[in-house]
Amino acid sequence: MKKLLNSLLVISVVLLMASCAKSAQNKLNATAEQINQELPMDFGNGICMDSLTYDEADNTLIFHYALSEEYQTVGSLRGAHDAQRRFLTSYLSSQAGNEFTKLLVDANANISLEYTGSKTGDKTTLTFYAKEIKEILDGQEDAQDDRTVLSNLLAVTNDQCPVQLNGDDLVMTGVALGDENIEFYYTYNPEVYEFDPANTDALKALMKPALQEELSAPGNAMQLELMKKLNLGITYTFEGEGHDPITFGFTAQEVQEL
User: Fold this and answer.
1) How far is Cα 225 from Cα 166, in angstroms, rounded to an integer?
2) Helix or strand (DSSP H, E) at 11
3) Averaged pLDDT in 10-residue chunks for the chain of 258 residues
4) Which DSSP string do the residues of 138-161 spell out, in sequence order?
5) Which residues are CB-contacts of 15 (< 8 A; sequence separation ≥ 6)?
6) How many other CB atoms sit within 10 Å of the CB of residue 17?
């Protein structure tokens, strides 16, 4: 079962930076050209990165994403812009994002994340302007800790909830960062889904392949890294009308072994 995480997937850019460009602007253009050779790329969670372009006139690096709209819509992402902005700020101020942030500041460049719904053609764009990025770099001595970064990442998911995974019969209602686990919450229709609270091992076995696929998706690399560093597991809670809530999950050790 796929959770809805943000699609701010700029980590890959840092790994592919062109190192021989004569100027910061040329380096941005070279980076876009290099990454485009690897695209399109499926990041999981219904998100595909189609292209990366550098608009010289606007001095903007633009990430173009297509959403399948199976689990989330462009409208839900539009409503999560504040949470996306908090997460991207966390990433750009982190050690992992340091090289990318410095390059953007050297080029005095903006970055834009453009999402297009594959079914509806609806679009939304989130832009970080050069001034904002420079302020982030200047404030890196106050970089956020790993738990705060993960909390900001999960906030993007929360801002898109509730999300219908199967109409009203199965709905993701939220996600929380607990002391020992990332906690996912769902409601379900007992007339459609049967959960045996006495056999949570069967539920884990059913969930395991989907969780493995999800955690191995490129778009979830940061979440998985943070979970390992913070030694966190995952729990799932399902609530059906007239039934006691059912909670099961995977320990931090089990997540490490997936």
Assistant:
1) 30
2) helix 11-15
3) 34 40 74 82 78 89 87 74 72 69 85 89 88 77 71 80 86 92 94 87 86 74 82 94 93 88
4) HTGGGPPPHHHHHHHHHHHHHHH-
5) none
6) 16
